[in-house]
Write a structure and sequence with these properties.
The structure is a homodimer. The termini of chain A are far apart. The first copy, chain A, has a three-stranded antiparallel beta sheet. By secondary structure, chain A is of the alpha+beta class. Chain A is built from five helices and three strands, in the order ααβααββα. Chain A has helices at 4-13, 19-27, 35-42, 46-58, 79-107, and strands spanning 33-34, 62-67, 70-75. The interface between A and B is medium-sized, with 34 and 34 residues. Chain B binds a DNA duplex through residues 14, 18, 20, 34-36, 44-54, 66, 68-71.
DNA sequence: TTAATATATTATTATGTTCGCATATATTAA
DNA sequence: TTAATATATGCGAACATAATAATATATTAA
């Protein structure tokens, strides 16, 4: 059986299942940022951010580059951003469908 | 702050973070299937499958249609399949990169 | 109505995830 | 070397998720 592919697939998609990790991806979409930059933009404890970054790196979603004391993270495969954006569209379409439904119900 | 969007985004992507749910999506990519059909194709207990289907439906990923005693599930928004496929590509590119690396290491 | 089939729900247990805290490591400057 | 800054890691508690088993509901046929 070839089910292992679903396991790996789920493992990498699991990165998208956490709001902080999604925010990281969104912040890195236009290029690399250091841990410091990310952590001040996101307003979360550095130690927690590092945990997320480390997981995303282990699973091949992010790459790192060291420059002196700073470590810069970037998105390894831009296709991941594409998937991110498509799922965002799916979400927004859901929301607007709900909105329309609510309006209909109100006017009835 | 607009962070709620990441919460919702994560919530819907969370569907992709489980191998069985990915298999359901893959099985439904060419059209609806009943719970029975899915459960025999997947070889998992019907009760477990129903739980996954119910979650996917709650989150707007799947729609249902009843025909007599059968309930047919289908994918609500085909864009979700697109996102599924892109992440599959990301994964396969990762795997082939690793393969190449292994070959390199072996020959060195 | 009863039986048979398809599907859903609930409770329980096992497992995984997330976070905060404390601590560790690496680099640079003094 | 020591101090300062940036980043990573290990541990434990709180919480979420997944699987199983048992049971419930809905539809159809007899």
């Amino acid at each position: 059986m070839n089910k292992w592919i679903y396991e790996l697939h789920a493992r990498i998609c699991n990165i998208f299942s956490n709001p902080k990790r999604l925010e990281v991806i969104d912040l890195l979409r236009n290029g690399e940022k250091s841990v410091n930059e990310l952590s001040s933009l996101m307003n979360i404890p550095q130690t927690n951010l590092s945990q997320h970054l480390s997981l995303m790196r282990q699973r091949g979603m992010l790459e790192t580059r060291r420059d002196g004391v700073n470590i810069y993270y970037s998105i390894a495969n831009p296709k991941a951003i594409k998937a991110f954006d498509i799922m965002r569209e799916v979400l927004l379409e859901q929301l607007s469908r709900n909105e329309k439904l609510i309006k209909k119900l109100k006017s009835a």
